[in-house]
Amino acid sequence: MPTLNIITNVPGDRVTSSDVLKALSKAVAKSVGKPEQWVMVSLTTDKPMMYGGSEEPCAFGYLMSIGSIGGEKNKAISAAVCEVLSSTLKVPSNRVYIQFSDAKASDVGWDGSTFA
């Protein structure tokens, strides 16, 4: 149940959101190692943002998963997500931050209960 939220200052009229979402979903599933049926992604465009004193394209991502992340694996996940953001939104990888969160199954709700 990896969940990736991306916020960017890239104008929404420059992107086809469904294409970006599909590419991010596949990248997360592959790099995290969980079936895509459990992956959720969201994309927020047009957000006023500044990185390093510049309003050039940038992005912030938050990835939460129950296990399957951490340490060296986060580097591979970061590379996969940054590749999608670079190719679809034209956001350079050096203008992307990603926060990783390894959640306990009992702290994630699903289907009226939790995963624990």
UniProtKB/TrEMBL annotation:
Signal peptide: none annotated. It catalyses: 3-phenylpyruvate = enol-phenylpyruvate; L-dopachrome = 5,6-dihydroxyindole-2-carboxylate. Its EC number is 5.3.2.1, 5.3.3.12. The keyword Magnesium does not apply. Its main location: secreted. GO terms for cellular component: extracellular space. Pfam families: MIF. Keywords: Cytokine, Isomerase, Secreted. GO terms for molecular function: cytokine activity; dopachrome isomerase activity; phenylpyruvate tautomerase activity. It is found in: Secreted. The keyword DNA repair does not apply. Belongs to the MIF family. This is L-dopachrome isomerase. The lineage of its organism: Eukaryota, Viridiplantae, Chlorophyta, core chlorophytes, Chlorophyceae.
